[in-house]
Amino acid sequence: MKKSILLALFVGCVIGAQAQPIKKMKMDQLLKMIDTSKTPLVVNFWATWCGPCIREIPWFEKAVKEYAGQKVKLILVSIDYPDDYAGIAAFAKKQGYTSQIIWLNETDPDVFCPKVDKSWKNTIPVTLMVNNKRKYRQFYNQQLPEPKLAEELRKLVE
């Protein structure tokens, strides 16, 4: 029994220690980062409570890895509520997410959504793909199934 408790504590400490830090950003900071990126970006807006978001992130991570040679980068932007911020890192670790995660430190989607794209209807998941070198910018106001994601990634790097 003691060994089981010690093992559980050890595993909990290791998992907690390995959880990536989640940087807080305001929308203007995020947009500046996107607009000045020298590499193609896939920016996925999600939340820990969003089932479709959680289902699509693993295939996003897998698909983007296939474009590592073209330096495509996936950024997961959490729009979780402020009270949930502290749990995002542990959630991401449990899910096995390896991409950079940013927490959007904003509370009014009526203000921040149109800054990303005027067609954003305050829903998630949504994805923005940007290749500044090619002046390519595409917004997807819906979940992207695996085959559609693969097709859109090809367009991003063409």
Describe this structure as you would to a colleague.
- This protein is α/β, with parallel strands linked by helices and 158 residues long.
- The chain has one domain (21-157): Glutaredoxin (3-Layer(aba) Sandwich).
- It is built from six helices and six strands.
- It has helices at 2-18, 27-35, 51-65, 85-95, 109-116, 146-157, and strands spanning 23-25, 41-46, 73-78, 100-104, 126-131, 136-140.
- Strands 1-4-3-2-5-6 form a six-stranded mixed beta sheet, with helices on both faces.
- Helix 3 (51-65) crosses helix 6 (146-157).
- The longest helix has 17 residues, at 2-18.
- The chain is globular and about 40 Å long.
- The model is unreliable at 4-17 (pLDDT under 50).
- This is Redoxin domain-containing protein.
- It comes from Sediminibacterium roseum.
- Residues 1-19 form the signal peptide.
Tell me the fraction of residues in β-strands, as a range: 15-25%
Low-confidence stretches: 4-17
Give the count of helical stretches: 6
Q: If classified by CATH, what would the architecture be?
A: 3-Layer(aba) Sandwich
Number of domains: 1
Instruction: Write out the strand line-up for the largest beta sheet, numbering strands in chain order.
Output: 1-4-3-2-5-6
SSE class? alpha/beta
Label the overall shape: globular
Please give the number of β-strands: 6
CATH topology: Glutaredoxin
CATH superfamily: Glutaredoxin
Binned, the helix content reads: 40-55%
Using only C-alpha atoms, the radius of gyration works out to 17 Å
Organism: Sediminibacterium roseum
Keywords: Signal
InterPro entries: AhpC/TSA, Thioredoxin-like_sf, Thioredoxin_domain, Thioredoxin_ResA/DsbE_sf
Pfam families: AhpC-TSA
